[in-house]
Amino acid sequence: MIHVCFGMYDKTGKYSKFVGMCMKSIFENTKSGVTVHILHDNTLTGENRKKFEILVAGENAKGGNFEVKFYNVETLMPDEINFWQGIMPERSQRIFSFGTLYRLLIPKIIPPEIEKIIYLDSDIFLTTDIAELWNVELGEKILAAVPVCIEDPEMPKTFYPVEENLVKSEDYFNAGMLSVNLKAFREFDDKMKEIGLHIAEKFPRPQFDQDILNCLFAADYLKLPVNFNRLVMYARGKENPYTDKKIYHDAGGTVSLDMRDIFSRYYMELFMRTPFFSVDFIGDIYNLVLNHDVALKRNGLSLFNSLQDKTRIFFLNPQTFGFFNSVFQTNATDEYIDSSGQISFNLLLKSLKESGGKKIVFLLVPQQEYFRYRDLLSAEGYRENIDFVNVIDMFLSEETGVPLATKFYMRYV
């Protein structure tokens, strides 16, 4: 039996569907027996729990061998939950939910007779048999993961353990997919808390629990190829989820309601085959589109007010300067920063901080990169459409080939 685990916090009731979609993709692509362990809290509604059960029952009726088990972490381990929620940095809470912390409770909650488990973030879907990952032998390693540098060599440099030379850049891993030796992992509970307290006090960055796990295990884990945790933002335009057999990770909300995009289409088709697809979802899409025009006007007004007495910083690739210069009619007071690399982003932050609120950033970067910069700037306390603007999304969608639906992400409906 293959064991898979999710951590889930669902304050709005709209998050459960992502776990459901990931489960569906597992069931459709494997012939093995799978037990899904859902670590949740009191935000899991009875209706959504029933949908998980209906999903499993439907697959078993077709000959599958699947099971779902629920663990209410608030009931089972209230003191642990209070500890981790109490030290989770505010910056992390603004970007991630408390559910991301529940992976740290896996060794305490999952029954001791289970010695191995695969942890998956909910924004993952599989087009391959999960048995391929399960059958990778861990040996003496505590866990297996995919290094972040495989997708983007510059990205690891933005994380606290790498900045502080606690973890080598080439070793830092994405914790959204982990194959875990539970027997060995259970020995590190006290050490996780010790590192968690240190990070929360000294380095309150958004990737809180991921940084904890990297500080513990990055020096000695089994490095897996990228096909076990392929980020959609890098796969788009290069791969086809209908034919490429991988574990895809929609980190940063890059799957939208734009059905012209092959990954979004695959994701929607997957969703429609789950019990979470309903007439209410269609109504939510309608309301999202209805409110979009209002949001654009509000953001435009906010930007107009923010521009008063502010200098514009254009964060862009110099090769695109000619195009954007013709659109924005730049002048001598504008500032330009090359968008390539972490050094450039550090220069951007330095310029913003030194301005004392007198500068606004026009981010002229590819859409998939915008999400990363948005999260990094938000973590520093800067506000979207006040301190920085997604210029492509707000003004240049059609000119740059980015559809209007980029704001219509599945997480909002």
Strand content: 15-25%
Report how far apart the termini are. Answer: 34 Å
Number of helices: 18
Number of strands: 14
Structural class given helices, strands, pairing? alpha/beta
Q: Which runs of at least 5 residues are low in confidence (pLDDT < 50)?
A: 398-407
Task: Estimate percent helicity.
Answer: 40-55%
Q: What characterizes the major β-sheet?
A: 7 strands, mixed
- Radius of gyration from CA coordinates: 22 Å
Average pLDDT for all residues:
84
Strand order of the largest sheet: 3-2-1-4-7-6-8
State the shape. Answer: globular
**What oligomeric state do these chains adopt?**
single chain
How would you describe the overall organization of this protein?
The protein has 413 residues and is an alpha/beta fold. The protein has helices spanning 16-29, 46-61, 73-76, 78-87, 90-95, 106-109, 131-134, 160-163, 182-185, 189-202, 208-217, 232-235, 262-272, 279-306, 321-328, 342-355, 367-379, 391-395; strands at 2-8, 34-40, 66-72, 116-120, 124-126, 143-147, 173-181, 222-223, 230-231, 247-249, 311-316, 335-338, 359-364, 388-390. Residues 398-407 have low confidence and may be disordered. It has 18 helices and 14 strands. The longest helix is centred in the C-terminal third of the chain and has 28 residues, at 279-306. 37% of the residues are buried. β2 (34-40), α2 (46-61) and β3 form a beta-alpha-beta unit. The protein is globular, with a radius of gyration of 22 Å. The strands form three sheets. It has a seven-stranded mixed beta sheet with strand order 3-2-1-4-7-6-8, sandwiched between helices. α1 (16-29) packs parallel to α2 and α10 crosses α11 (208-217).
